[in-house]
Structures are given as structure tokens and as C-alpha cells.
Specification:
alpha+beta; 2 strands; 16% strand; two-stranded antiparallel sheet
């Protein structure tokens, strides 16, 4: 990939706050392999970052069509603007989203990507 090629699934944010920041050493969530992780708190007024994240989600879904058996999963669970989203347990949400997207029991979204 050339240095001038922009990856549509990557986002550079504006100013954010960090929550659950495991940046100095990896942490294990519910017995999983320890990983570095962080949750971002993005101001609602930062529409540029929010739009960039939405575009990255669209690009990731488009890139992942083959992984979803040719089906494009609905974004309703991710984009319901009237519902506030809280990520307190990312591993649990990964399992729930995997079920929502039709993954069989024992198969989950890759948390490393």
C-alpha cells in the first residue's frame, strides 16, 4: 500500500477523552487474553469525527461482505440515533454483535482487528 493511500476503515479523531484506558499494560477482560485497549468519549459537537467513524463503519461492512457470507449486515444496532450507546464490557458486546450478525455459537467477531 502506498504512503498516499488512505485506509477507509481507519479514523484520526479530534480531541477525545479516554475511558478504561489500558495503555501502559494489557488487561484481561473476563479471562480473555490480555490486550491493550481504550474506550473513547467523543463530544457530540465533534461531528467531523463522528462522521468519519460512521464512514469507517460503512467501509468495514463493505470490506467484510465476504466474511458475512455475501450478506451485508444491518447497521440499525449501531446507528440508532435516538439511543445512547454505552460500552462497559466490550467482550460481551462482541459476543452479542456476533450473534446479531448470525455467527454460529463459538465463532465471534475478531477483536484484534
Amino acid at each position: 500500500m502506498s504512503a498516499n493511500h488512505k485506509n477507509p476503515t481507519k479514523v484520526v479523531t479530534g480531541v477525545v477523552r479516554l475511558s478504561y484506558a489500558n495503555v501502559w499494560e494489557p488487561a484481561s477482560i473476563n479471562g480473555s487474553n490480555p490486550k491493550y485497549s481504550v474506550s473513547l468519549i467523543i463530544p457530540k459537537t465533534d461531528t467531523k469525527t463522528i462522521d468519519a467513524i460512521n464512514a469507517a463503519v460503512d467501509a468495514a461492512i463493505k470490506d467484510g461482505v465476504a466474511k458475512f457470507g455475501g450478506k451485508i449486515p444491518g447497521k440499525a444496532a449501531l446507528t440508532a440515533s435516538a439511543v445512547a450507546k454505552w460500552a462497559f464490557n466490550v467482550q460481551f458486546e462482541r459476543v452479542c454483535l456476533s450473534r446479531y450478525l448470525g455467527y454460529s455459537v463459538g465463532r465471534y467477531l475478531n477483536s484484534d482487528s
